[in-house]
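Two proteins follow. First one:
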Amino acid sequence: MVRICHFEFVCRSQGLETAVEKFRVSYQLISTMGFFSFALRNMKKILINPPKSFHEWKMKFFFIREEVIPIAMFREPNAIPKEDTPIPKKASWYDKLMATPNRVFGEQVLVADGMSDRWPEWSKEVPVLLLNGEEVALYKSAFQTFSGAMGVRPLRDDEEFWYERIKTNFMFAPAELFANPPVATEGVRIPNPRPCRAMTSAGKEIVYLSSEESVASSNHELSSWNDVFEGVLRDLGIDHEEKRPKKTVAK
């Protein structure tokens, strides 16, 4: 994910249109110890100082049943197709891809790069990167030696609102999709049910993914996560009882 986000930042900061085809020119999908990632295809380095590890990554992993994914997926490393997209070394957009450090950016940098929509819709200002009061290319913000800072400039008469310019970079679910959301009991007693959904008080949707049986129960309640996880272990051929600590009875 770091390489994908970084590639998008480099493209947008250089005024290039992002596209999967461009990403495939630079990266090859790989598998290492069962984990899928991306490796650089050619000698042109784009990402500088990628993170070597992520702390507490296990807390962010979850299982998804194959049935809920709308496309055919492969799991075996040998099934990964070798990337053969030609490298357009003479193309102008390829020449603009430059080595840029990996960095966690503030929200305003992401808004200016069109990677975040957290900007007032009718604002008459445009977020820009400034150095000594002059607007400079946004990619320079990735370098620690850069001494400038984010700022704003007035919207020109011939420009549309910044939010209008960047909103097409994002996909928003239409309101009608949430008009009649599935209830928690959908899929009861169905061998391969659809995922059950629920809405939080904040309006966010939660998807409960099931294993062999539905997460929903016949008494209109959701199963506990322990039950769901045990079902996932069964799918993987693991006896969940072996994972529990054995109790000793004092005589």
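Second one, unrelated to the first:
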Amino acid sequence: MKAINIAGIGGLDQLVAAEVPVPELGPTDILVNVKAVSVNPVEAKIRYCRKMGRGQLPAGSILGFDCAGTVSSLGSQVPHNAFTTGEEVWLLGSTVPTHSNAEYVAVDYRVVAPKPKSLSFEDAAAVPLVGLTAWEMIDQTGVGNEPGALLVINGAGGVGSVGIQLAKAKGVKNIIATASREVSINHVKALGATHTINHREPLKPQIEALKLGEPIKYILVFTNLSKSVLDQAIDVVAPWGHIGLAVQGPPGSYDGFGAGQKKGVAVHWGFVFTRMALKWEMEYQGKALRDMAKMFDEGKLKSITTKTLELTVQGVRDAHTLMEGGETIGKVVLKVPATGAFQ
């Protein structure tokens, strides 16, 4: 099959076309014919250092995480009523990475779900990684279970774009999103943010100026963690509030962590790859995707796609350039073109 992989460590020229074997199915896997993928910032980081967590990806590895496509075949132990050949699905995957920048991807059926009927393959592919990150974080922190405002740090990114909508659907009255540019401010407001503040300025004075009439009960940090971000989060969150962290910070980021004890703050780590890496309750993600699909089809969630490119070598290179620029909002997706795909 055709694919786009990384030839080695380095620049955009390391993203190259390749011919590789079609993945072999495990007994609980399904083979998905890829129609569209999304691109995530971590993929550019992997490309220029080939690292994923504490491991290292060898040259020739296929990148790609979330995708949408059609079921091509089923493993021997996949329940007969789970999926049918030709069914349209969306997924994050059951390996890290999923290797979705290819014609076919093999994935455990438990983390796959039928694609929302109301979304194109491109719009569906934009969601799984960031959607599941937001879904799990909101589940863990209990956003909306008790009265109180929500602060989303990095509201215009992919995870924030879904998180804001999920919080709105849960009935959160005050949703504050950090955004500094006009385009990102407009983006988060269109998705349901009731207030915006500038993350480049001290947070507390801006929050106080909003005169919300209720405390900040929940904070979701969907950006690279730093000591400043964590210190400010602990400072502004209400006593017995909840802080969710999606990305680890460098050494020194947690030096002020103990200040949260005085306020009884609960801190929740979110890592969307935990279930697949540890093979732990993997069916949770399949169910979450089914629930999100229903929300999209009911109009409770909106598309977060902001740019669509073609799934070609040049398209992937262009997408990585956008990731490295650090100013994308929503998600960038790549669709399989009628001709020239993966070339």
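SUMMARY FIELD: The CA atoms of residues 113 and 289 lie 6 Å apart. The mean pLDDT is 94.
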